[in-house]
Amino acid sequence: MGPRLPSIVVLLLAVGFASADTIVLKNGRRIVAENVTEDSTHVIYQTSFGQTSLPKSIVARVEHDDLVDRSTSSAAAEPPVSAPALEPVGGYEEVTARAVHDNAVDYAYIAQLEADARSGGAIAVAKLSAAHHAAAQFLASKGDTDAAIEQYRQALVFAPENLGLLANLGVLYLRESRFTAALDPLEHAQRLAPDSADVAKLMGWAYYGANKTEEAIEEWKRAERLGADPEIEQALAKAERDRSEEETYREGETAHFDLKYYGGARPELARDILRALEEDFRDLESQLDYTPPDSISVILYTRQTFADITRAPGWVGALNDGRLRIPVQGLEQVTPEVAHVLKHELTHSFIGQKSHYRAPTWLQEGVAQWMEGRRSTADAAALVNRAAQGTLPSWGTLEGSWMGFSGEEGAFAYAWSLAVVESIVEAGGITDISRLVDEITSAPSTEVALKQTLHLSYDDLRQQTVAYLKRAYLR
Ligand SMILES: [Zn+2]
Q1: Nearest 5 degrees, angle CA 355-CA 358-CA 362?
Q2: pLDDT (tens digit, 9 = 90+) per residue, 22-79?
Q3: Ligand 1 centroid to residue 33 C-alpha, Å
Q4: pLDDT tens, residue by residue, 180-234
């Protein structure tokens, strides 16, 4: 067996997460929420439209906005394994005591050590490494992870092959959920010490966090062979449970979706997309007071670009059959942009089915954009201008297919439709949208439905929207 690193579990991770009340998903998405609580399987939170929940399996952590110790928190906030203590060098207590004293880092002292290291020998470099490590641990304990990372980076300039420096840098990235960044120093450490159980343990954490379950299992099995602790066994068992869950996703079944994919989409990506859609489904279900009766087909295309992403007008018709067509060419994970597209497209499915496919295009696109989180901030002035010039597109044009629109007209139609929906939601809440959509299923026209539910003519709705834009964005 090769060099074995000292393996004392430290309280490195017990510092906690103290900032805004934010649920951070494994895919990187952040949900700002109130009253976040947890049970054994779900993270539960309040939205302005009621309570909703997420399976813990997709939550990386919960960041709370208070500094009160929450003993109820949280399996979701815990990393899969703890960080082993890896001293870059031993026996320089005097150096570490001088590097951090009186509750502060002594940067002048570290600069002096750096000057010594520049001109010389192994001992000077060892001292510098010890000082940077002490400074980094102190900064990390104060919550300044970026500064702590910088300390390790500076030390690695002089000691690029120091296992402890590499591993500790990796740990800081892991604590920040920056899993890809963590892999860089950890892979380097593993090349230097292929028999280190501690490094394999951390590699497993990085892969697990990055949703690379297969690789995580491999690393934790390696750590187990190299003689690791019971913690590894637990993490490994959990990763193996996740893997069998992934098998299910590969077959493309969840409660509400039926997935088909062509070409080489990664199973993990398909799984993450389905998870995100399940979450969106629950949200839309409560906001629109509607549950689509049948499972929704999702088609992942690996070799096709998707017009709706760029708000180009060429898509319409194709989408209103209720299926979700998601382009995943070159995608590794659910990026924030893709998360927006998923929510947008799923909204179309909801509105389509709820209205029996009778919702006009402006309502479809307005609500889909509103649900994905888009707002009129940047477009308000241009919209008010066009309204003043009397050059808004006619409601008749906006109701039908947008296929014939030029790119610019299409973009304008999207922007105006969003503004209209925003003004309806502002005046009466999202329930007004829900009532309007219901009325459209039986009313002879959209305008009649509008009058019966919101007591507005199309002309009133235009005026309401312009007044809203001025009030909300142009004051
Ligand atoms: Zn759309």
Answers
A1: 100
A2: 676 655 555 656 667 777 667 776 543 345 566 676 677 776 643 322 222 222 335 7
A3: 26
A4: 889 999 999 999 999 999 999 999 999 887 667 789 999 999 999 998 688 999 9
Ligand 1 centre distance from Cα of residue 450 (Å): 21
368 Cα–ligand 1 center, Å: 6
Output the CA 51–ligand 1 centroid distance in Å: 26
Tokens standing for residue 239: 């990763």
pTM higher than the cut 0.90: no
Q: Tens digit of pLDDT for each residue in 316-359? A: 333 434 567 676 766 778 888 888 888 998 998 899 889 988 89
Rounded CA gap, 104 and 134, in Å? Answer: 11
* Cα 252 to middle of ligand 1, angstroms: 24
Q: How far is the CA of 308 from the centre of ligand 1 (A)?
A: 6
| Amino acid at residue number 233 | E
* b/e 277-303 (16+ beta carbons within 10 angstroms → b): bbbbbebbebbbbbebeeebbbebbbe
Residue extents of the structural domains in the chain: 88-242, 257-354, 361-473
- Residue type at 325? R
Query: Cβ contacts of residue 48 below 8 Å, gap of 6+?
Result: none
Topology of the domain covering 88-242: 1.25.40
Which helix (H) or strand (E) segment holds residue 403: the answer is none
CA separation for the pair 272, 302 (Å, rounded):
15
